[in-house]
TrEMBL record:
Keywords: Signal. CDD domains: TroA_a. InterPro entries: ABC_Transporter_SBP, ABC_transptr_periplasmic_BD. Gene3D superfamilies: Nitrogenase molybdenum iron protein domain. Residues 1-23 form the signal peptide. Pfam families: Peripla_BP_2. Belongs to the bacterial solute-binding protein 8 family. This is ABC transporter substrate-binding protein. Residues 54-335 form the Fe/B12 periplasmic-binding domain.
Length: 335
């Protein structure tokens, strides 16, 4: 996604279910030394001749995937917009303090070269863009890349992104990174933990007609920017007990028309909190926008806020499902 990141959601620290955040991890294969590893990334076999030691990441979710695996010692730095806010109280706060903040813009070839990067971990519209920086440009400079699976381009639909369900993308990246960096045991532990959290929420979720329809509002007034079936909100919403209003849209993050939102009449709107426009300002706009006045979520003011880092592929996804699930159960119960 090409959007920016804000401060952490209110109450995140109290409900976050991650363990070992930012813990230093000794590679599982330390005694065997460096070895080539081949993984499938965005449908292609990619071989890494040795364990990367100077990784540059782009954006918050990607950066925190490295932190969740305890790989901050393998990082040269991260690129993240200025409006990410303070990291005080965030998960992985110690890791953020330890790793250098290289730039407040998107990753560039110059940034990677200046940091002496041996790998850039980014994604299409999460740093990589045909008009700015492509993986091929870095490869020509001798720098490896790894693409965020949520951002993989779908060959059947052209430039749209998404090749698998969003949580599967998270687990795939954890597995691949675990192999690349020799921390397979840590990766599997996280995957098992995340799946257990999601399964617990899913077991409590409303069923059938009781599942609220949910519209993800990212930004935009003339046309809303939202999530189709291949971005993280799709499964965050469905596992929490709702139905993504744009489930049939075969893309990740994209723009639709307000007439679609009005016609489909969501029960709940989830606001993506980030950037220069606050969640409260977005809420005020939605409540005052005339075409939405008869939409159920607006009439009943069923508007819930999640942070940007909750809604892109990241280690925060299971916690987001947990929090949104509790809210949707209240909606389904009529409270």
């Amino acid at each position: 996604m090409h959007k920016l990141v804000s401060t952490a959601s209110l109450g995140l620290a109290a409900v976050l279910t991650l363990t070992g955040c930012g813990a230093k991890v000794v590679p599982d294969d330390k005694k065997t030394g460096p070895r080539a590893v081949t993984v499938t990334n965005c449908g292609e076999k990619v071989t890494y001749d040795k364990r990367p030691e100077r990784v540059v990441t782009n954006d918050v979710g990607i950066t925190e995937l490295m932190f969740a695996l305890g790989l901050e010692d393998h990082m040269a730095g991260y690129v993240m917009p200025a409006d990410k806010g303070s990291v005080d109280g965030l998960p992985y706060g110690d890791a953020y303090d330890k790793v250098k903040w290289l730039s407040k813009d998107r990753v560039t070839k110059e940034t990677a070269l200046s940091a002496h990067a041996d790998l850039v971990f980014a994604g299409w519209n999460y740093g990589f863009n045909e008009n700015a920086l492509t993986p091929d440009e870095l490869h020509e400079a001798g720098i490896d890349t790894y693409l965020l699976t949520e951002s993989c381009r779908n060959a059947r639909t052209g430039t749209s992104r998404g090749i698998m369900p969003p949580l599967d993308a998270l687990y795939t990246d954890l597995e691949n990174l675990g192999r690349i960096f020799g921390v397979e045991e840590r990766a599997q532990k996280l995957i098992t933990q995340y799946k257990a959290t999601v399964a617990d929420v899913h077991a409590k979720a409303p069923e059938g007609a009781d599942r609220p329809s949910v519209f993800l509002y990212d930004s935009g007034q003339d046309q809303p920017f939202t999530s189709g079936r291949y971005a993280a909100p799709e499964q965050i919403i469905s596992e929490a007990g709702g139905v993504n209003l744009l489930h049939d849209l075969k893309d990740s993050w994209t723009t639709v028309g307000w007439e679609t939102v009005v016609k489909r009449n969501p029960d709940v709107i989830v606001i993506n909190d980030y950037g220069s426009t606050s969640a409260e300002q977005k809420k005020d706009f939605l409540l005052s926008y005339p075409p939405l006045r008869n939409v159920s979520a607006i009439k009943h003011e069923r508007i819930y806020t999640l942070d940007y880092a909750d809604l892109v592929e990241s280690p925060r996804n299971p916690s987001a499902i947990e929090r949104l699930g509790a809210y949707l159960r209240q909606v389904a119960d009529g409270s």
